[in-house]
Design goal:
Number of helices: 10
Order of helices and strands: HHEEEHEEEHHHEHEHEEHH
Distance between the termini: 50 Å
Largest sheet: 6 strands, mixed
Structural class: alpha/beta
CATH superfamily of the largest domain: P-loop containing nucleotide triphosphate hydrolases
Strand order of the largest sheet: 6-7-8-3-9-10
Shape: globular
Number of domains: 2
CATH class of the largest domain: Alpha Beta
Number of strands: 10
CATH architecture of the largest domain: 3-Layer(aba) Sandwich
Length: 297
Amino acid sequence: MAPDKYYKSQHVVSQGPLGSFWSKLAHGFAPPIMEGDFCPVNFSGSHGVSIKISKLNKSFGATHVLKDIDLIIEPGETFSIIGPSGTGKSLLLKHIVKLEKADSGQILINDHDVNEPQDKNLPRNFRYSMVFQSSALFNSLTVGENVGLWLRENRIYGEVRIRRIIREKLRLVGLAGKEEMRTEELSGGMKKRVAIARSLAMEPDLILYDEPTAELDPVTSDELARVIMSLKEKVKLTTIIVSHDLNFALYLSDRVAMMHGGEIIAIGTPSEIKKSQNPIVRNFIYTTTKGIKGEGD
C-alpha cells in the first residue's frame, strides 16, 4: 500500500498492537525490539550498541536460507553486509529488527535477546531505526513534516523542540532550510537523505540501511556515502549497511562481512576483504569493481 493511502487510514488501524506495528513500518521505522508502543527512555543522545548473532538459522519450506550465522558487531562500528542478490543479506537485517523470526539461534543487542519478552515497566536501553530501500516518505507531507512525524505522533517533545530537531537533522544530512519542500520536488538522493534525517530524529543507537544506493546513479551514490561518512564523525551510533554495492561498502565500513548461499564466508576490514584469497570473494570483488586488486597483487 502506498504511504499516502496508508496515512489516511492509520488513525483507524493503529489502535491495536498490529496496527501500531504497521504504522511504524509505513513511516520507515521498524517496531521497538524490547517492548511495546512507547519506551520511557532518555532521549538525550545516541550510544552505539553491541550486536551478537549466534547460530542463526532460517528456512522457508525446504529452502535453508540462513545457515548458522555467527556475527559480532561492536558498539559504534559501521558494519556492511555485502554479497550478490538472493544470498540472505536483507533477510538477516529483518531478523535483527524482528520483522522475521529465526527457526533457531540467538540475536543479542546490548546483551538482551531480542526475541525474549521484557517487563514493559522497564525502560529499553536502546533505540533503533531503519532506512528502507524505498525511503517510504509521505508525498502528502513536506520534508519537515516527514522528519518530525514520529516525534509528533508519539508526543515525545513539544512543538518548538520538534521544529528545532527537524532543522538539526536536516542540517546533518545536508538539507538545511528544506523543511517546506514537497517530496515530489526531491531527487532520489534527496529522498534518501530525508529518510536518514527522519531516522536520526529518533536519536537511534542503531541505524540500519537496506540497499541505500538502490536506484541511485554513481554520482548520487557518492553524495550519499559522504553524508553517511559525515554522520560517523558527528553521531555516536552503530550502523549496519546491507548492500550489493561493494565500492560503497568498502568506502564507509570499519568492517565488512560477505554472504554467499546463506552463509557468511568472510569478515574483515575493507583492506582484508580486498586481499582475501577466497575464490568466491575475489570473484565478487573483481566483477563488481571492474578489477580492483588487493594490495600486493
